[in-house]
Amino acid sequence: EVLFALVFLTVLAGRFIYMTKTQTSALPADTSRFQRQAARLVHWGMYASLAAIAITGLMIGGLFSLGFKSGFLIEAVTELHGLTVSLSYLLIALHIAAALYHRILGDGVWSAMTPFWKEQ
Q1: How many CA atoms are closer than 13 Å to the CA of 29, on its beta-carbon side?
Q2: Is 28 helix (H, G, I), strand (E, B) or coil?
Q3: How many CA atoms lie within 13 A of 64 on its CB side?
Q4: CA atoms of 7 and 115, how far apart (whole Å)
Q5: CA-based R_g, the chain, Å
Q6: Nearest residue to 101 (alpha-carbon basis) of 27, 10, 20, 21
Q7: Domains of the chain: which residue ranges?
Q8: What is the full DSSP assignment across 70-119?
Q9: Rounded to whole angstroms, how far apart are CA atoms 112 and 107?
Q10: Which residue has the higher pLDDT, 30 or 83?
Q11: Over the stretch 22-43, which tens digit does the pLDDT of each residue have?
């Protein structure tokens, strides 16, 4: 589990760096400020929550191996871990909903996200 979490964090960090350095927004120029900010918040939130899942998982394992099998600290970190999982589900659902919205709208955002499945 530790190895998986470390590999996951490395891949996630690599993707985050790659995306921030090489990708620009595919949103059309006339996209509202609210939608632009929501898109940015959801994307950053997905990266942060996915990283938090791995980090809190590592913390749970570390605390457990140090003998913290019960008590406030392990319970707080376990609760935080569960909350970040739930937040990730919510953000992924919002991302999928927005992707489908742009697919229906036909504004080109879908094609930028799925180059293998172009809009007609």
Answers
A1: 0
A2: coil
A3: 10
A4: 27
A5: 18
A6: 27
A7: 2-11+34-113
A8: SSHHHHHHHHHHHHHHHHHHHHHHHHHHHHHHHHHHTSSHHHHH-TTS--
A9: 10
A10: 83
A11: 988 888 888 899 999 999 999 9
